[in-house]
Amino acid sequence: MRAVERLRLALARRGIGARTYGGYGLALLTVDCLIVWCNGYRFWWCAGWDARRGRPVMGSQDVGHTERTARRVEFHLARLRQWQADKTPPANGNGS
To answer: Based on CB atoms within 10 Å of each CB, which residue in 4, 49, 61, 76 is the most buried?
Structure first.
């Protein structure tokens, strides 16, 4: 739960509000429609959809890199918001 709280604070410094939840060995951070999971060692989140393989593309980062994770989450949130505004779902994990 400490790692998720550090991520929440890193996002807050970027002006992004998030909520944290914990239990059953996992901690969660929610921002809008994005959920970031943490098991105490890694963060991970759904970063897109691979239509060819028919499965989600996951983003992941070691908890020792909280600021980098915050930047990646911030970038992904911007993409999600753009996709929602355009009403065009992503074709794959890199937005193309």
So the answer is: 4
Question: Helix 2-13 crosses helix 66-86 at what angle (to 10 degrees)?
Answer: 60
Close Cβ partners of 84 (under 8 Å, ≥ 6 residues apart): 33
**Which residues are within 8 A (CB) of 23 and not within 5 positions of it... i.e. 6 or more apart?**
none
pLDDT of 44 above 90: yes
DSSP 40: S
Q: Which two tokens stand for residue 83?
A: 């996709």
pLDDT in tens, 11-25: 999 999 999 999 888
- Indicate left, alpha or beta for 49 from its phi (over 0: left) and psi (-120 to 50: alpha): beta
Residue 59 in tokens: 């983003």
How is residue 16 annotated by DSSP?
Answer: -
Quick: pLDDT tens for 52-86. 999 999 999 999 999 999 999 999 999 888 888 88
